[in-house]
Write a structure and sequence with these properties.
This protein is α/β, with parallel strands linked by helices. The protein has seven helices and six strands; from the N terminus they run αβαβαβααβαββα. Bound molecules: flavin mononucleotide.
Length: about 180
């Protein structure tokens, strides 16, 4: 970077996709990776993926501070992909939020939410819980929130979608969020 304004110009329009679980081998990570692939193809803005698998979110750890500086603060838009664990989204995602500098990371930015569940609900309750929290954080949340039910019947071992109708609604959400 030549100077500070170059830095600001290149950093202001990042998009970060957050894979909202620390469970290894999660379906959430597969879905988040799919969002990253498609959004990278369709957006002129850099798209990053933040996994909570190895991230120490229990405190303002060095890794968390690094993610904050490199991804969360520079991003203007976030996609939260999160599984349903016991009727809502995982605690690790709330820990991440609670241990960030909320003004710099979240205030007045934009978010899209994708819920996943093995059951029929598609994490609808978790989507509502997170929406309330993101509104508390002064974020603008895309109206098109996507509940993905029976997720283990949706994706094969290679991460390919088995049902074109599901892939279509994902594409539609992505298109809307890129324009949002
Ligand atoms: C701790 C835990 C709690 C869960 N609770 C629910 C639940 O309340 N409802 C549901 O439909 N699925 C539940 N599941 C199943 C997940 O939705 C399923 O594992 C799905 O693949 C998404 O989670 P994953 O990203 O960790 O794979 C739970 C899974 C775990 C590990």
């Amino acid at each position: 970077m030549e100077n500070e304004s170059d830095y600001l110009c290149t950093q202001l329009f990042m998009i970060t996709i957050i894979s909202g679980t620390n469970r290894k081998g999660s379906m959430t990570m597969k879905v988040a990776a799919f969002y990253k692939k498609i959004m990278s193809e369709r957006s002129s803005e850099p798209v990053s993926l933040l996994s909570l698998e190895e991230l120490n979110c229990w405190e303002r750890s060095p890794e968390l501070l690094k993610s904050e500086q490199e991804l969360l603060i520079p991003s203007e838009k976030f996609v939260f992909v999160m599984p349903e664990y016991n009727g809502s989204f995982p605690g690790i995602l709330k820990l991440l939020i609670d241990n960030t500098d909320i003004r710099k990371c979240w205030w007045y930015k934009k978010a899209a939410i994708v819920g996943l569940a093995d059951g029929r609900g598609g994490n609808l309750r978790g989507i509502d819980h997170l929406t309330g929290i993101l509104h508390y954080l002064k974020m603008n949340v895309l109206y098109n929130k996507l509940p993905l039910s029976r997720i283990n019947e949706e994706i094969d071992g290679e991460g390919q979608w088995l049902k074109s109708a599901t892939e279509n609604v994902i594409m539609h959400q992505i298109e809307e969020f890129l324009k949002y």
